[in-house]
Amino acid sequence: xxxxxxxxxxxxxxxxxxxxxxxxxxxxxxxxxxxxTSEIIVLFIPPKASYHIILKxxxxxxxxxxxxxxxxxxxxxxYSQNAFFSHVINHTIALVDVLNKKSxxxxxxxxxxxxxxxxxxLSESKRAP
Length: 129
What we know:
alpha+beta, Rossmann fold, 7 strands, 24% helix, 40% strand, Transcriptional regulator, PerB
């Protein structure tokens, strides 16, 4: 499904179909599985940017999001949880798209997640219906 601002991408995790809502122009490379570690890896690539976001999800249900800088090759973890919440991925990517600067976006996201009570902002149980 597509509209002017968002594109829904279907991604399969643990045999379950999850729909991620990406900003227009972003690409989600089909997940691949690392057989040695059972990790599923998805690359989210913004248009005309010098970075992308990597989502890693493994059989222990651990989910991590990284910024990966194309120029320096550095990876900066911005989210790490023992669960996969598609709304967290959606919000994080939307924030990155709006800020459009790797270091600034990374710092803002880390602040929101780690500030006192910040976990509640991204908590599945605290979302408005």
